[in-house]
Amino acid sequence: MTHRQRLSMIVAALVAALGLSFTGAGVASAAPRAAAAPSPVAALATPITGTADNGSFAGTFTPSQFTTQNGNVLATGLLTGTVSDSSGAPIGTVSRTVSMPVTVAAVTCQVLNLVLGPLHLDLLGLVVDLNQVHLVITAVQAAGNLLGNLLCAITHLLDGTPTAGGLAALLNAILALLGQL
pLDDT tens-digit profile of 126-177? Predict the structure, then answer.
């Protein structure tokens, strides 16, 4: 897997975890940002679909920037798509710059990566031969994963706590790198 593919997968996973939904005319009335946002990275376009009692929406969201507001990370980007009525007939299109909250679904952290070479033991006539052993322990940090949350917290105890602003800056740096490829 190339460096670009890894970065694309990370950012796409973050964007996919946005928790986007279509509720009636909410998408069509999304207010555009006052300041012009940087260009969206087309490789990160994420399909967005939703339904309501009176119709549906199908389109894409392409992030261009990450910001913070009240300690939360927001993804700003271009939302484009088609709004259809309940029969499926298109009734309009949407092409707006919108900001949406970003949530991370699950975080993993590597707790242990141990590689033991081949081992030969001869204990009073009992011979034990062990080939190479590769032990990897990974903790999954998410709601309800008590042990995974604890081990990730211990693993990153001395790392410092990243702020929402730091996370937004990191995501903007990743977007800039992907935009250059």
Answer: 999 989 989 998 988 877 888 888 888 777 666 666 667 777 777 888 887 7
Cα 57 to the chain's mean position, in Å?
22
Mean pLDDT computed over 52-63: 88
CA–CA gap between residue 130 and residue 149 (Å, rounded): 33
> Quick one: which of 170, 161, 33 has its CA closest to 96?
33
Q: Where are the domains of the chain?
A: 3-101, 107-161
Q: Do 68 and 164 touch, CB atoms closer than 8 A? A: yes
Q: Report the pLDDT averaged over residues 97-104.
A: 83
**d(Cα 159, Cα 162) in Å, to the nearest integer?**
9
Residue with tokens 């009240």: 70
Place of tokens 């242990």: 112
List of residues 6+ apart from 81 with CB closer than 8 A: 27, 48, 57, 58, 59, 60, 93, 94
The number of beta carbons lying within 10 Å of the beta carbon of residue 47 is 10
The residue behind tokens 């141990």 is 114
